[in-house]
Design a protein that fits this description.
With 245 residues, the chain is an all-beta fold. Helices cover 0% and strands 41% of the residues. The protein contains no helices and 19 strands. The chain has a four-stranded antiparallel β-sheet, with no helix packed on it. The radius of gyration is 23 Å and the shape is elongated.
Length: 245
């Protein structure tokens, strides 16, 4: 009796996905080394890409953007060919690379959209990393001081209060949020106040008031004034005209 069972996968063949699921315009090139030329985690895919002298990786999110397309970012990693790469099995954003330039590097991957220095504390920086605001001390850049509450979608704007006590955010999820990073990582005030998710901006005005710009439901540009202690309704608003395009 044969001790080994026939694999049910012995006659399987790969199935090429539909073109709308492809990452296009990739110039992978031709490389000679023993390591991997492409690796993926649950969030990112990286691969060697063609460049004179080597050292460049292509980076893309595993999932497409809101428009259904993938964006490939060029990541200059080394001064020579990247000979191997690997993602940590414990951190889907941590990438290790090695190269013909005889160096090994660790990369913490993530999309950074916004940066804003604290108005009264030297070296303190608010960072908008996709859906989460982070607070960093630039003298200790190895780790964030605070990771604030994750938002429901892409962060669009950050603003410190003039005395630096509070941080306000606007987001593609139409929410306005106010944080006191010294006290807690969750918002002290929040409300779904914006009418449109297109390109909002927020700015601390005088005292407890916030000014936002964005679009209403009719795609007209508008500016609104808010009391940061009560975000459920604006104090006043003004229409700035219909957006083109």
């Amino acid at each position: 009796m044969n001790r080994f069972k026939t694999s049910k996968f012995k006659n399987t063949t790969p199935k090429i996905g539909k073109k709308d699921g492809w990452i296009n315009n990739v110039r992978a090139g031709s490389f000679s080394c023993q390591g991997n030329h492409i690796k993926a985690s649950a969030k990112f895919v990286v691969f060697n890409t063609e460049q004179a002298g080597g050292g460049m990786l292509g980076l893309s999110s595993v999932k497409p953007g809101s428009d259904g397309q993938w964006t490939v970012t060029q990541l200059p990693c080394h001064s020579d060919l990247v000979t191997d790469m690997d993602f940590s099995p414990f951190d889907e954003s941590l990438l290790a690379t090695c190269s013909g330039d005889e160096t090994v590097k660790l990369w913490s991957l993530g999309r950074i959209e916004l940066v804003l220095f604290h108005p009264t504390s030297s070296g303190l920086l608010a960072v908008g990393a996709t859906k989460s605001p982070l607070i960093w001390d630039t003298s200790r850049p190895d780790t964030a001081l605070a990771v604030l509450e994750q938002h429901g979608d892409q962060l669009q704007s950050l603003s410190w209060k003039r005395d630096g006590s509070l941080l306000a955010t606007s987001c593609k999820d139409k929410m306005l949020r106010v944080f006191d990073p010294r006290a807690q990582t969750t918002a002290v005030q929040s409300a779904k106040s914006l009418q449109n998710n297109k390109d909002s901006r927020i700015l601390w005005a005088k005292d407890d008031f916030l000014l936002t710009t964005g679009f209403d439901m009719m795609r007209s540009r508008e500016a609104r004034l808010w009391d940061s202690r009560k975000l459920s309704s604006s104090v006043s608003s003004v229409s700035l005209g219909v957006a083109s395009g």
